[in-house]
Amino acid sequence: MKIEGELSKRFAVYRTDINDEPFERDGEYDTLEQVNGHKWRLDRRYKIRVDGKFMTRTEFDAWAKSKK
Fold first, then answer.
1. Measuring CA to CA, which residue among 52, 56, 59 is closest to residue 15?
2. How many angstroms separate the CA atoms of 63 and 23, rounded?
3. CB-count exposure of residue 67 (10 Å: 0-12, 13-18, 19+)
4. Neighbour order of strands in the sheet with 46-50
């Protein structure tokens, strides 16, 4: 089966709800540098999807350092 459309980006930043579950996508990115350049707001909580797995910003930072 062939599905038409754009491929999703490797990274996506999501805002989380009161239960810390992702609910609204804030941005999609191809590179670590683009994710780090995201406009983070202090009054929001985020999760970052990396290859289908959700991480907190702290987990993402540790993961990104291990990839360098």
1. 56
2. 22
3. exposed
4. 22-29, 11-16, 46-50, 53-55
Q: Which of 67, 9, 66 is nearest to 35 (CA)?
A: 9
Tokens of 65: 């350092």
DSSP string, the chain: ----SPPPPSEEEEEE-TTS-EEEEEEEESSHHHHHTS---TTS-EEEEETTEEE-HHHHHHHHHHH-
d(CA 60, CA 18): 20
pLDDT, tens digit only, all 68 positions of the chain:
455 666 688 999 999 999 999 999 999 999 999 999 999 999 999 999 998 899 999 999 999 999 87
Q: CB of 66 within 8 A of CB of 26?
A: no
